[in-house]
Write a structure and sequence with these properties.
Number of helices: 17
Distance between the termini: 49 Å
CATH architecture of one domain: Orthogonal Bundle
Order of helices and strands: HHEEHEHHHHEHHHHHHHHEEEEHHEE
Strand order of the largest sheet: 1-2-8-5-3
CATH superfamily of one domain: Cytochrome P450
Length: 415
């Protein structure tokens, strides 16, 4: 059985070569940790899709792999529950109830209404860097843009947004940000306490924002989000509401700068931005693997015996480069039709924020490249550093130059 290093900087720079080898030689790959625990990595498109659809054998709540370990609803919720008791880490019927409640608040209409604010935020951020002639695209643009958008949707005041973004970052990739366990817990606790105050304020004085809508969401049976569920859901929206878009804009900008012919086509075909974003999601999407699933009970999958409690990660980035599903999968083709990539997952856990991420990616990238037609990398691609971790795929930084004579306040044209 071949072995693969999925955690090195070299792999993060180019995971696709390794994924291609895994699809060929070990499409269901068992990584054994020093403790003996097994994590299965699923790399082929059809197998990834099968796992994403199968909620009987693969569960998101580890308690569903055990018997008699249900968490008591009467005990005081732990910090872990206050952060993780949301639909991303639940299975039916809990997932069904949570998704229905959140769908009431996170509506397509609410997402569509953010377009002017996304455009204004993009223009404002680019105004700030235009006179400098260069910028660090992640810190100056790709990160603050979605942070502002999701914070304003939730109803977090501008004065609090920097702190809230910092606290929410502690939820994921703590090692990659140099956070020790103690500091991480302090930041997570600060976020939970802040949200508690925000929820209380919205109950006293409702506003036209997403937090109010979540506080007020109720099913016909009278169910509401519990306090841990409410806190966890807002934390989830904060993290996923900016993390995916940061990487979509960063990875997408890099891909376009490295494919000048494709970028030139896009400049001549401005109506193509919608399909272009879909191809950028497929080509180098913001999520490398899914969040953790566990094997509910022993069973055989594609000839491999999976044991109860084994961890399973489906490799979304690998599936979206599978030659059995996509023609010339390693080529960026902004005119690609029938692009059924899996960048946002599939099935009941399909990303709730996908429409918002798409809209932010389209407005953010179109505004960037329209305003700065001479944009170029300010360092060699080989020198770029990718953030560690198995979940998200994103750059640590992306220095660019060529911002001279950028025209301000260009309108977004929705094709």
């Amino acid at each position: 059985m071949p072995t693969f290093d999925l955690f090195s900087p070299a792999f993060k720079r180019d995971p696709f070569t390794t994924f291609a080898q895994m699809r060929q030689e070990a499409p269901v790959y068992a990584h054994v940790s020093p403790s003996g625990a097994i994590t299965w990595y699923i790399t082929r498109y059809e197998d990834v899709l099968a796992v994403l659809k199968d909620n009987d054998h693969f569960v998101k709540d580890i308690h569903n792999t055990r018997s008699g370990t249900a968490v008591s609803s009467t005990s005081r919720p732990t910090l872990h529950q206050l952060i993780n008791q949301n639909m991303l880490f639940s299975d039916p019927p809990d997932h069904t109830r949570l998704r229905a409640l959140v769908n009431q608040a996170f509506t397509p209409r609410r997402v569509e209404q953010t377009a002017p604010r996304i455009q204004a935020a993009a223009d404002d951020l680019l105004d700030r860097v235009a006179t400098a002639g260069q910028m660090e695209l992640i810190a100056d643009y790709a990160l603050p843009l979605p942070v502002v958008v999701i914070s304003e949707m939730l109803g977090i005041p501008a004065a609090d947004q920097t702190d809230v973004a910092d606290w929410s970052q502690a939820i994921i990739s703590p090692g990659g940000r140099g956070l020790g366990q103690r500091v991480r817990k302090q930041k997570m606790r600060a976020l939970v306490e802040y949200l508690d105050r925000l929820f209380a304020a919205r109950r006293r004085q409702p506003q036209d924002d997403l937090v109010t809508a979540l506080v007020q969401a109720r099913m016909e049976a009278g169910d509401r989000l519990s306090e841990p569920e409410l806190s966890s859901m807002v934390a989830l929206l904060l993290v996923t509401g900016h993390e995916t878009t940061v990487n979509l804009i960063g990875n997408g900008a890099l891909a376009l700068l490295q494919n000048p012919t494709q970028l030139a086509w896009l400049r001549e075909n401005k109506e193509g931005w919608g399909t272009a974003v879909e191809e950028l999601l497929r080509y180098d999407g913001p999520v490398e693997t899914s969040t953790t699933r566990w094997v509910r009970a022993d069973f055989t999958f594609k000839g491999n015996l999976l044991r109860r409690g084994d961890v399973v990660r489906v490799c979304l980035a690998s599936a979206s480069r599978d030659a059995t599903q996509f023609t010339r999968p390693d080529d960026l083709d902004l005119t690609r039709a029938d692009n059924k990539h899996l960048a946002f997952g599939h099935g009941i856990h399909y990303c709730l924020g996908a429409p918002l991420a798409r809209l932010e990616g389209q407005i953010g990238l179109q505004t960037l490249f329209t305003r700065f037609p001479h944009l170029r990398l300010a360092m060699s691609p080989a020198e770029l550093v990718w953030r560690p971790g198995v979940l998200f795929r994103g750059l640590h930084s992306l220095p660019v130059s060529g911002l001279e004579n950028g025209t301000s306040n260009l309108p977004f044209s929705n094709p």
